[in-house]
Design brief:
13-stranded mixed beta sheet, 2 domains, about 350 residues
């Protein structure tokens, strides 16, 4: 479950970027149906964390490979067992870890990411909603910081509950290049001073309370989520610690196409990019589907609803001329589109230059 947290939770706040650092917007968070990635986790390793700021070069190549692999697949919400329990979710990760198959439900928009809850259908069966939910603004930029609190309650037996509360302070505190056996990435680094309070309640009365603290680092490239996740030992106080309780590294990533008996989306593309007159968005439907195509500006504001209809199977083309729903020409800049097909979303990023 340690690597699961690093993969699913998107921790971010908006701030003014400095020259040379990457900016991770909502389209650069893994979300397209069929995207698959794997992390390998190892316990008790030596790491070199380094200082704040940048640019840095972090190397996580000498540590051994662990026995824990976590495989993640982005799946359609309507193919999952808990879809009715998370009506606000538009992004679902199906996670294979040890004997568990876990479904993690989120809501992702141009301006924020929100973790709603999880459920398991094998191994250690569980189900919970985050109350309060874990919500973070977008994009991810160097220099951001936030306080957070999320938590959930699980029923262990009649009148017996386990309450988990997660508190912390996080900063996007460094930037540079991270090197792992799989690849090398430009990245931002998040640092979290994390506290977990576990309370056992019987008939609503606290019986035992346990508190643990960690210092957590996540190394965040564009498009692939978390490249490296580092978890300190409990009660660690030195941010530049060298002995880590747990290290997780990306070992595989693929933006494949998800196929099911219900639908398939193929050949999603847009050109030209950049564009000055119009941009053409292409996609292919395997069967008759409900389709909605929306255009957003860089601040996450809805600019135009280009399509909201049911379309037949086959190839489709949509042209956007850089105008909003009122026919007014938009200014130069970065724009995003979201293609919703039968409730599942696919995204793209475009540059408009008049």
């Amino acid at each position: 479950m340690k690597s699961l947290i690093s993969i699913v939770i998107l921790s971010i706040l908006t701030s003014a970027p400095l020259t040379g650092q990457i900016i991770i917007d909502w389209t650069e968070i893994p979300q397209n149906i069929g995207t698959r990635f794997t992390h390998n986790g190892v316990d008790s390793v030596t790491v070199k964390i380094g200082s704040q700021g940048g640019p840095h070069t972090w190397q996580f190549v000498s540590q051994p490979t662990g026995e824990q692999d976590t495989d993640v697949l982005v799946v359609p919400k309507n193919s999952t067992p808990f879809e009715d329990s998370f009506p606000g979710s538009n992004l679902v990760y199906m996670i294979y870890e040890d004997a568990d198959t876990i479904y993690a439900y989120s809501r992702l928009t141009p301006s924020f990411a929100c973790n709603l809850g999880q459920g398991s259908v094998s191994g250690d069966t569980f189900f919970f909603r985050f109350e309060p939910v874990d919500t973070s603004p977008l994009p991810i930029v160097y220099g951001a910081s936030r306080h957070y609190h999320n938590g959930y309650t699980m029923e262990l037996a009649t009148n017996v509950e386990l309450r988990i509360d997660n508190y912390g302070f996080e900063t996007i505190d460094a930037w540079g290049m991270v090197i792992i056996p799989y690849d090398t990435f430009d990245c931002l680094r998040s640092c979290s001073f994390d506290t977990i309070i576990t309370t056992l309640l019987v008939n609503g009365i606290p019986v035992t309370v346990d508190t643990t603290t960690h210092i957590i680092y996540d190394f965040l490239p564009e498009d692939v989520g978390v490249a490296v996740h580092v978890l300190s030992y409990e009660e660690e106080t030195n941010p530049n610690y060298s002995n880590a309780l747990f290290l997780s590294r990306l070992t595989y990533f693929s933006t494949g196409v998800y196929e099911s008996r219900r639908f398939t989306v193929n050949d999603l593309s847009h050109q030209p990019n950049p564009f000055s007159d119009y941009v053409t968005i292409n996609y292919c439907l395997s069967e008759r589907s409900a389709v909605e195509l929306k255009i957003y500006d860089s601040a996450g504001r809805l600019v135009k609803t280009a399509i909201n209809t049911v379309q037949s199977s086959g190839q489709h083309t949509v042209k956007w001329y850089g105008r909003d729903d009122h026919g007014k020409s938009r200014s130069d800049g970065v724009y995003f589109y979201s293609l919703y097909v039968n409730g599942c979303r696919f995204t793209g990023k475009m540059l408009f230059t008049e």
